[in-house]
Amino acid sequence: MSRSILQNHSLMFLVCVSFFGILLSALLAVFPPVLSEDFVWRKHVVGFVFGSICVLGILAAFFPNQCTNMLNLGKGEGFTLHGHFSKAGGHHPNCENFSPHVFRIGSRRMCVACTGLTIGGLVTLAGTFLYFFADWHVEQYAVLMVLAGLVGVSLGLFQFRVKQRFVRFSLNASFVLGAFLVLIGIDGLTQSLFADLFLVVLIVFWLFTRISISQWDHKRICYACSVAVCEFRKKGRG
């Protein structure tokens, strides 16, 4: 297994395309093209599509294992969308190496990343309603919103080295909020259905890259573990 992203060619491709998308979004914000379109339902269509993605993302964070089974992902490898599945609770193994990835509420183990993504998704849903359906105007702050959003997306993509739970939680929440800020900022600048749908597809790609990096990181942790006998590592290598 490649322990470096640079040695994992498929993951490196996802990362490069993601950062190309970040650069392109920044250029759209600084040099917005004249793409205004006279389409009355533009904001409603984009709001419905993006809001639906947010809802699906929240459901996936609440039920990662069910979503994995529905999509037939990770079968036979011992990994779910976010890493190993543990019957003891959560989708991380009950292992000290994964302690920064989980926190406890009573006897329940919760994934820090999924909790951050869920909170960010809920806030984003509220913002989606305000901007796309309640006529919230942000045009005067659009460029700043895009740039701030891109910072949030970039930090969210590469937060796997962070050990502090609260920081991991915050970066995952800012990843979702950042994507939302980029979308509404570009919409305010271009007022184009094409640009909006392009951003929605790009956001989905960013999320897929985020999940792929998380999977790689979880496997890297297991492969670097010094425990002689570990069922999770054995399944991951299988």
Structural features, described:
The protein has helices at residues 9-30, 42-62, 64-71, 112-132, 142-157, 165-190, 193-223, 231-237; strands at residues 102-105, 108-111. The chain has 238 residues and is mostly helical. Strands 1-2 form a two-stranded antiparallel ribbon. Strand 1 (102-105) and strand 2 form a beta hairpin. It is globular and about 65 Å long. The termini are close together.
Brief account:
This protein has eight helices and two strands. The chain has 238 residues and is mainly alpha-helical.
Mean pLDDT: 80
- Estimated radius of gyration: 19 Å
How widely separated are the two ends?
12 Å
Strand content: under 5%
What's the helix-strand series? HHHEEHHHHH
Task: Count the beta strands.
Answer: 2
Low-confidence stretches at least 5 residues in length (pLDDT < 50)? 71-89
Shape annotation: globular
Structural class by sheet pairing and helices: mainly alpha
Query: Describe the biggest sheet?
Result: 2 strands, antiparallel
User: How many H/I helices?
Assistant: 8
Helix content: 55-70%
Biggest sheet, spatial arrangement of strands: 1-2
